[in-house]
From TrEMBL:
InterPro entries in the record: Cyt_P450, Cyt_P450_sf
Family: Belongs to the cytochrome P450 family.
Name this protein carries in UniProt: Uncharacterized protein
Keywords recorded for this protein, A-Z: Heme, Iron, Metal-binding, Monooxygenase, Oxidoreductase
Cofactor: heme
Gene3D superfamilies in alphabetical order: Cytochrome P450
Annotated source species: Trifolium subterraneum
Pfam family, one: p450
Molecular function terms from GO: heme binding; iron ion binding; monooxygenase activity; oxidoreductase activity, acting on paired donors, with incorporation or reduction of molecular oxygen
SUPFAM superfamilies: Cytochrome P450
Amino acid sequence: MLDEYQELLGGFSVGDFFPSLEFIHSLTGMKARLQDTSRKFDQLIDQIVNEHKTCNKIKEHKDLVDILLEVQTNDSGELPLTIDNIKAIILVREAL
């Protein structure tokens, strides 16, 4: 799934160079593939976050998701962390 996403985002995009030809992505199916892959990633990350939220064990070794959820619950008000922010951080981290 990650390989397909990187292929779709890293490939040549006619719309980037010629905005008036953006409709070509709809004709070639590229737009539908990108939306489908994005939806799958969103569902996967939702599942990961929900698993971490429901796991009430005190962990000795916390991972990135645990730390982000902890920051969200201990909202300092200075920079609120939304669930969308958490999902974006996870997605970017997995792409590296």
